[in-house]
Design brief:
Length: about 450
């Protein structure tokens, strides 16, 4: 069944860095700090950590396992594992669809990091006037042409890397960018610890502050666990399919989840002290990174340098995630349709670029397409895509992957594949706890997220 000519990662470290590269992204550096801020800090963080441990990690293990067992991409994986065409493949189709949709708007936000990097280098952020910076962000959001341009640049860079293949493109990019990202973040953290506001920020993130936590916040924490770990659309499954059978998939998956969580917590411990030091509130929403940070940097010694480092960090994080999104979709055309990699990547990048144009135009106030389309209530195109992907496609895909792995796969086959190359995977109590979580807790948690999204909770 295994195809000896199939691409694979060079090493387990390569897999971990690529998988962590996929997981660590705008979700960690942009979204997690601001939703933590809006939900009042500590108690929300605790719920999020539980969601990662009890729901995210079991699905991650399941996805990587399915990928390595099937040794093919997400649509074909279900058929390969059942040995015949199967309705389960619908979850693979959903995954590919989710990849296309997420990348189309993710690339627009990623483009903002490039725009802010450029503003930093031009010295345009140096004055740090709060009103001017808020206006600059609003102006960028409304400026369709600039958004389309950066979206194009970001998609082109992503495509160039993915076109180079699994080892030379995906793995090498992660091996270069992930260590740089971790070093920049660590340097920023060291700097943040020197600020007087660090203790207050630490208490905000780790103290038991339950006052602002609502049931909606609990479900938001759970939903975010999917997005941040890149679960539910086959990204981890596809990367698992490039993992060699000799490698310890349990340890590698745990390392990936731990790295992702550490980066999210570090991001909070960097952003909040800086926000507090500048006398700003933590609950300022999506503008936290693009408005508050430049305001804060302007007040701090060495501000332009930190600002440049910060937006480089954001760009690298977004890029390694975008690479995984494109890889999922490209792998389908390469594995199932036998397309050459360059052809698959070129066509998809073009398609996703075009699909992202309405998102890039969503903020403009003239009568452009993206801003005028209101499918779901007040949501413009951009918000609609984000809503559909995070609240529906990823949880649904996660449910399918968990159910297939926990209920459909034969126990003997699953158990031996789990244990292959892994001492922890071969440890029966660990295996059984994982299976129990995947069978019961994970589906219940996902159904809760969906009920919440439907307004039933
Ligand atoms: N995990 C990425 C983030 O936190 O930004 C987003 C993402 C990447 C989601 C890849 C899903 C995915 F397949």
């Amino acid at each position: 069944m295994a195809d000896p000519t199939r691409a694979h990662f060079q090493s387990r470290l390569g897999f971990i860095l690529a998988a962590a590269g996929s997981a660590v992204g705008l979700g960690n550096l942009w979204k997690f700090p601001y939703i933590t801020g809006m939900n009042g800090g500590g108690a929300f963080v605790l719920i999020y950590l539980l969601a990662i441990l009890l729901v995210g990690l079991p699905i991650m293990l399941g996805e990587v396992l399915l990928g390595r067992m099937a040794a093919t991409s997400v649509i074909g994986a279900f058929r390969r594992l059942t040995g015949a065409p199967t309705p389960w493949s619908i979850f693979g189709v959903l995954g590919v669809l989710a990849g296309v949709i997420i990348l189309s708007y993710y690339s627009v936000v990623a483009g903002w990091s490039l725009h802010y990097l450029r503003l930093t280098l031009d010295g345009a952020l140096a004055a740090g006037d709060p009103k001017a910076l808020a206006d600059a962000f609003a102006a960028l959001y409304a400026d369709g042409a600039t958004n389309v341009l950066w979206h194009a640049v970001f998609m082109a860079v992503t495509a160039l890397i993915v076109a180079r293949g699994v080892q030379k493109g995906v793995e090498r990019a992660a091996k270069v960018m992930m260590p740089v990202l971790l070093i920049i973040l660590a340097a920023m953290l060291v700097y943040a610890t020197t600020l007087d506001s660090f203790a207050r920020a630490f208490d905000f993130v780790f103290g038991m502050h339950t006052a602002a936590l609502t049931p909606a916040g609990v479900l938001e924490a759970l939903g975010h666990a999917f997005f941040t770990l890149s679960l539910g659309m086959g990204a981890m499954l596809t990367y698992g399919s490039y993992l060699s059978r000799r490698d310890d998939l349990v340890a590698a998956s745990i390392a990936t989840a731990v790295l992702d969580t550490l980066v999210a917590l570090m991001a909070c411990l960097v952003l909040f002290p800086i926000t507090f030091a500048a006398g700003m509130a933590p609950a300022s929403g999506p503008g936290l990174v693009f408005i508050n940070m430049p305001i804060a940097f302007a007040q701090l010694p060495g501000g332009p340098l930190w600002s440049a480092l910060f937006f480089t960090l954001l760009f690298f994080a977004a890029l390694t995630s975008a690479i995984s999104l494109l890889e999922v979709v490209a792998a389908y055309l390469i594995d199932e349709r036998r397309w050459s990699r360059p052809r698959a990547v070129a066509l998809l990048a073009l398609l996703i670029f075009v699909l992202g144009i309405p998102s890039a135009l969503s903020g403009s106030d003239d009568a452009t397409f993206g801003a005028q389309v209101h499918w779901l209530g007040e949501r413009n195109w951009f918000d609609t895509f984000d809503y559909l992907a995070s609240n529906w496609l990823l949880p649904l895909g996660g449910l399918g992957i968990a159910a297939f792995c926990a209920w459909r796969l034969g126990d003997r086959q699953r158990r031996s594949a789990f244990a292959e190359g892994s001492p922890l995977g071969a440890f029966t109590p660990f295996y059984l706890s994982w299976l129990l979580l995947l069978r019961y807790l994970v589906p219940i948690a996902i159904l809760l997220v969906m009920a919440h999204a439907l307004g039933l909770l």
